[in-house]
Fold each of these.
Amino acid sequence: MTLGIFDTAGSLEDRVLGGLDEEQREVASTLSGPLCVLAGAGTGKTRAITHRIAYGVHSGVYSPQRLLAVTFTARAAAEMRSRLRDLGVANVQARTFHAAALRQLQFFWPQAIGGTLPSLLDHKATMIAEASRRLRLSTDRASIRDLAAEIEWAKVSMLTPANYLENAKGRGSPGGFDLTTVSRVFQAYEDLKTDRNVIDFEDVLLITVGILQEDPKVAATVREQYRHFVVDEYQDVSPLQQRLLDLWLGGREELCVVGDASQTIYSFTGASPEHLLNFKARYPGATVVKLVRDYRSTPQVVKLANDLLGNRRSGGPAADAAWAPPLRLVAQRPSGPEPRFMECPDDEGEAAVVAGRIQELLDAGVKASEIAILFRTNGQSEAYEQALASAGIGYQLRGGERFFARKEVRDAILQLRAATRAVAEEGQQSLGQVVRDIVSSLGYTDSAPHSGGALRERWESLAALVALADELAASRGESYALGDFVNELQERSVAQHAPTVQGVTLASLHAAKGLEWDAVFLVGLSEGLMPISFADSPEDVDEERRLLYVGITRAREHLTLSWSTARTPGGRANRKPSRFLEGLRPETAGAAGARSRTTTQKRKAAAPASCRVCGSMLATGAERKVGRCNQCPPGYEEQTFEALRQWRRTEAQSADVPAYVVFTDATLTAIAEARPSSLEELSALAGVGPSKLERYGEAVLAVLAGTSHPTEGEEA
């Protein structure tokens, strides 16, 4: 049985604040006035703010019914409510912006508007498709999705169809349409909603804002109800959400915000870190606390994350706020393995290598549920699904079928609810055993089935319910009964707060925000995917860097970063590793370190700064190595380059090291284009240092000598 804070001796401060570090304790004990918590990844921000709420309630400063904690996902809100319940403050409201606004709208609509609240539109796609047809536009699923995203951005930016056009400059061509057409679709969509008497999720916020602005009585009632506010993930607040928060506050300053500008990854949805970065200017007397002690990741993972942000050329959103520069995390965990960097020949090969590495981790005792494969786009998941299935490794696709929508889960909850009365009358067995007995009729056994497929997936769902019952019984104490567990499942079902399923997680980097695993594989880290090809401005590229930062900081101990040089087996190896890996990979980091050391060795000539073909500036170290930009055609013979690649592959396999450890693709390209005929000429190329010259020089010259070099006019 786990003891609650009222079951231990000592002062209230000891009971509530005793387990916090110095900075967390400052957050939890600062109960009044504006408070800004700059919290890095893995620094225990949720712990700090939930203990702050608990300390405020137990000390009498806060009334639990008059404090509203706002998060950005239903899952995060459910997690916060669970932690607050464990701290003895179950009556605090922890909701998303939309859930809090919808609750207020449902209550005030009859008196402020009159009649019945319109129905809530779950998805925009069908209605946007109909609006497009009315305008005789040709659309497909992808264009409808893009139009929906653009309309959502416009609405959270508080734009209307009338003023969208003048404020949407630079937004490109959403769904492949010009902005004038998008504004017409926007208007047609709004007209359709009015005709059908429905509202969407953005309308919930907009109408609530309108009522609070126009009806002083409603505004006064809300402000009387809520005296204190906490906002998590404040860097992701949209202009519309900030306006609603301002109306809730009504000029008061009892506000605690928590965020990290370096984790701003939703700008495309209208989120802006400016509210976080301008907090000190808006509230000059605000207390600012920085949480930088990283309890999640090993020093090796933390260093990589810090170095990634330290290498950025553009300042990013935090550059303009001198009081809030990017947080440099300080690792608190023991040392762990170095992050791995893997270059693979193609996407299929990359997936196979990752699956093999996962099997090694599973054999070493790492749970499948503690392993994740993270990618930039959902379309990348198929190769990894196939590789894991071929290896007999279970997985779950985050963003696929929701846990509580699965048939076996719904059946289990029905049976658990039906058994509540009978179990209450018997009242002898532990909760975990009771749940095991009940779900055994649905196919649960104490050991997993050896087969895969649907049988294994069904067992994993039921096993997740059993594990959750054990976990909650341990944390809530002996009085926690089956009825409490069924109620908890119902609440989690509404919030989509699923328990852990025993399977490797496949997820996009965006979907991974707020989660963590023992082992993380960041895959597909090549130019065009990371950063994504349509990131065509410094601001967009910087957000892509922050997205990779979020991916790195999901890992507790094991971290692998991989990319492939070709899309398909046998395809041309024209992909380059992400520019973000420059200076992070061992050979690029080593080169930087070598430049800083004092040596008596003759300094090489500086790599060219402009392309020798077109004259444009070279942006990356890889381009400078070959003296040519990526857009210009290579100057080597395919036969020569392929011979060098085959030699490198054989050399890497015999030494049991990744291919890039022998020579990077950029160096190999430079060798193929220069075709040096002596060790002296080879040593003059960027990427060929003394040790590599000594180890591989003669072999490289032999490869070059063994390939034909076409004479002038001869077809290569």
Note: Residues 54 and 89 are 6 Å apart (CA to CA).
Amino acid sequence: MITLLGPRGSGASEAHSAVMEQFGPTTPFAYVNLGGEQSLLPRYALALLARQLERKLPAYRRSSFPRLTLGLLASDHELRMTNLAQGRRIIRRELDALQEQAEARYGDYLAAFFEVAGGAVGAPDGASTAALALLRDALRRGRRRLPGRRKFTGSATWYGGHPLLRSRDPWEALVELNLWRHDGDEEDQERLDRVLFSALLEDVRSQVDRSFMPRSYLLLLDNAHTEDGRHFLDLLIRARHDDAVVAGAVCDPLTVVASSNRWLPRWGPATGDQWPWRLRGPDRASLADWREHRPGRDSDDTWWYPLRLRDLNLDEVRIRIELELRHHPDLAPFTRLAPFIHRLTSGLPRAVHQVLELLRQSAVPAEEGPEQDRWLRTLPDRALRNGEETRSLADAALDHLLHGFDGAQRATLAECAAARDLAAGTRLLSTGDWLFGEIRSRWLLLSPGTVTPMFHPWLRRLLLWQLAARPDDWNTVHELLAEHFRAEGRTVQEMYHRLAAERMDEVTGYLVARFPAVPAAQWISEFNLITAAPNRLGPVGGPLDLLAALAPNEPEDGVTTASVIRELITARWVWRDPLADPGMRLNNMIADGFNQLSRLRRNDIVALFNEAERYRNWRHPLTFTSEG
């Protein structure tokens, strides 16, 4: 069970499309979206999957699912009977009647499930043209005759031998299925679903033993974190475990790729410390890796293979833009903005797509320079069209990322986003641990392995943008956080929030005092952390305009350590925000500041020279770092 884990917009649906496109031409596959608006019963999902897996491939004979089909048929309509013997006679007649009715109306019985659950087989977001064509082929309706009475008899025999059914007589076992569905309690319904899942797995196993048949089958399960999705996965895992471990059957040749935007409750607490699996990155995924790291075979957990989706790196953002050019050549002037888009979004796939859509839809100055910088400064408030709906980029992106959070919770999250350490922020600014736990379980943290829990940078940037529109709340929150860290003696973190509140003199005084007192490398580290503070600088002007607004009212005469450090603080603070300095035009100014500091320090100047060189010859990092 390959499980793609990540926040909404992390590219799981696109991954489903890519897998479909890669393997669909040669492998039977089926796609179901388990997160639709309507509830999806397990039996409906099984029927939709089996119907797609029956697609005829050029190299193989058509697959069929006689056991599953018979189980669905037998439990479909309520039987009117007074005793079991009568039920045995009725069910044979009912099966024949249902077969004829389904073929007359839908072409085949499984196609009838499109009428009640067809919304679950829509194409995944971002599906390519090739993937859409494959999916349409898998869903094509036609006359596929159900197995005749002889095939039904063979499949009924399998039900008569199933350990979950009390009846050993094949036809009485099918009557038992019918009673479970229409007269049974919740436990009977669960038992029926378990038998149907077992039937699907047995059908798949039986296919590969025949000549000219596929050797594996592929299931793509989107949005498996929903209630229906979790129930489906639980049933599938249990059926596999019961068949392969408990009963000792051959493992089924079924590859399952599921996607989840949430931590699944069956794995224990979202901290992951009670789950034997450790999340793997998609770049290292392989059959050998799964075999090496999976838990013991006697555990249900052995069936999982969790892969934590990562954000796009800078090169991948460039490639994404180049691919968009095929359909939208008007994006060509903005290929140079790849570093800006990567810094802004941290490479979250949906965020990259939304920014590109906004650039394509808007009258952005095409030439690099101050005019383009000023336009990009207000990017989150720019209107983004999605069909007939037009909303600001910030609102559209937050509605997607924070789906299910109400207005009050979002306002609290915006305040918590002021804290670099989200655990500290939620502890001080919200009530209870629920909010932090919910953010963690939705994969909305920067990385599962980060020591200090932080919002994903794109989400945090949007929340801070909204908090900046509430200036009184902005100042209050940062003052509360600064006082908290002052009381704990964590002065660097305190100065981080003093700078966010534009208490420039206090921050300058602290860094001036530290400059001769600590090694240069330590001073640079503290300087970098403090100047990574968020800002709510004015919405107009480019980086030089913002710097001018931050200049002291009475500048010092001559060059002093304090004047150089203050100028360096403001320059890096503006540079650190991709919306304030989209083109990173302040690199040379920061480099000059470090050169000046090297002349003002008597010793230990190599680290300052190196820092100056780093900014002067800046190379954009491929992945997100604290440097922007």
Note: The radius of gyration is 30 Å.
Amino acid sequence: MTPVTDTTLFPAVPDSADAVLDGLDPEQREVATALHGPVCVLAGAGTGKTRAITHRIAYGVRAGIIQPASVLAVTFTNRAAGEMRGRLRQLGAAGVQARTFHSAALRQLQYFWPRAVGGELPRLAERKIQLVAEAAARTRIRLDRNELRDVTGEIEWAKVTQTVPEDYPAAAAKAGREVPRDPAEIAGIYGAYEQLKRDRGCIDFEDVLLLTVGVLQDRPDIADQVRGQYQHFVVDEYQDVSPLQQRLLELWLGGRDSLCVVGDAGQTIYSFTGATPDHLLNFRTRHPNATVVKLIRDYRSTPQVVHLANGLLGQARGRAAEHRLDLVSQREAGPEPVYTEYTDEPAEAEGTARSIRALLDAGVPASEIAVLYRVNAQSEVYEQALADQGVPYQMRGAERFFERPEVREAGVALRGAARAGGNDVLLDDAVDLASQVRAVLAASGWTPEPPTGSGAVRDRWESLAALVRLAEQFATARTAAGAPAPTLADLVAELDERANAQHAPTVEGVTLASLHAAKGLEWDAVFLVGLTEGMMPITYARTDEQIEEERRLLYVGVTRARVHLALSWALSRAPGGRASRRPSRFLSGLRPGSTTAAGRTRGGAGGIERGSAARKRRGPAKCRVCGRTLTDAGEMKLMRCESCPSDLDEALYERLREWRMEEAAALGQPAYCVFTDKTLMAIAEAVPDSESALASISGVGRRKLDRFGAAVLALCAGEDLAPDPAEDGPEEAADQAPEEPAAD
């Protein structure tokens, strides 16, 4: 068995070309040693594709066959490009250009623009969506926020498919696009947008590719210079290449065949942006002599997860399905996937949060757990449920780690301390690297314990805490390798390398992300939620091709899990709603007791849990002011519309907040782990006078009722809380301590 990733944070550089090949499985080794001619790597999820292609580049460089500066490796995200650069650096192949398509094109365009066109390259537009809004206004069309986003997406699609404004309506119809407005209106906005950019002297990211293609097509001398620089090309995630990116790649190649592409048609999930797997599937037709290698050994997921993933694609149809890869897990057996049916969405969120709390209690780190959903609008109810359980979380797609203001400030402080050396008074009592970092970052707001509450203050602390953990790991790794004890200067250099590679340390917290945003990531435990018809597949997926892409999207979600995998759905949206929803068709024949279209019933281990058993069935949640049925999670917690007048007891609310602050400090937890602001507001509005009345408030579960109920009811009754026994002397506290409750 071969691990996918290196086992240490800072591995030693291989001492020879042959050493680069150590630890690769036979198929990965075949990729690494195929240095000539066109190469196509069909790599399933978790099979070590990045490992294979980075070792291929490094082997060629270390063997003297490839010059580092002659290699251009392109992928689709800055994170992936950064990871590739970091791995190449660790393998002794520094100097290789690993970039996104846009980054590589922009670099070339900036260099050649004065010569090809004259003057400076027009500036990049910072806010494309704002320009689209202005273009719509010019055409006297009003767009709401969602329409604005969708029209912007249509303009991006048109440009990467090289469609001009006047051809957009016909092209959209031919492609079966679900357009947000009349195609003629979108064409008008598109045309006005292009004119607005010309008026402002700016370009967008799609223009970067279009203009680079134009320069290389029109100026053979410049094309020859680029081709003289780059002789070897590697393209990762080749199934996601757009027609425009493929055209740029062909111009870079200039008829040569020193090309290695890597992809998996079963993970094509971005066709709405213009991506198509056709270039991958047709590779052998275009290059009859290509070396084709299949990577199917899955080092990421357990046999149970892999079995479900294979079964999911086993029911797929279409051309991509004909080229599917049957994965073979290389890991030991793990738990069966868990399928859970809930009565409503809040129940599903609460059940998911309880399961996550159980994993945390069992020792699974929060950073190794993810909740994945189809659309970002589903996140709110899970944010609330996790907060109610006292579980920290982070939203995928937030600002990059090294670009956060507090991380930049910390970098400046660490760099200053490194220059000052022994003259920095902050370091007087610091004996090693970790204590030096803690001392420096203490001046920036780091403390040994996290602050109470959530929001920006907690986010800042989490960032600084991640830097402290990184320093500790860096020192441990250097010591284990027998190297001298690292200095602050060593750490600053490592941080600079990581910033350049976008290789951020892990911030502790459960990840909440859409399935699209989860591509390329992995966790020990994954919760796939909201798996109902209309959401998975999404309601606007109507054609066979669109339905199959939704199946592939779920496949991507399944293959993010290493060990624990939970799949769930709710029969209604709101509590007490009509149970009219059905589980996703993609689970038919896979979840226990279900049948496929062919009528086969799945048996085997596991079963469907009825999550509703843990939650009493209630009638529809209605506003207690106007009587309207509530569907918003925040409104259901308050039991009133946000717009309806509140009868909040402000004095009680303040007392509850003060009590919560003290309770959280005593527990050493953030304030929201006791009760969220919305729950406190709901309590202060309802002013419950009994345990049952308090229990009826959303966010007050059995666990919190037992722990905090007496204190909350006392505050609601206007009573003063008795002092904590722990504040008395040790003997008195021992006399007053209650008996330990019996185990459940």
Note: The chain is about 45% helix and 10% strand.
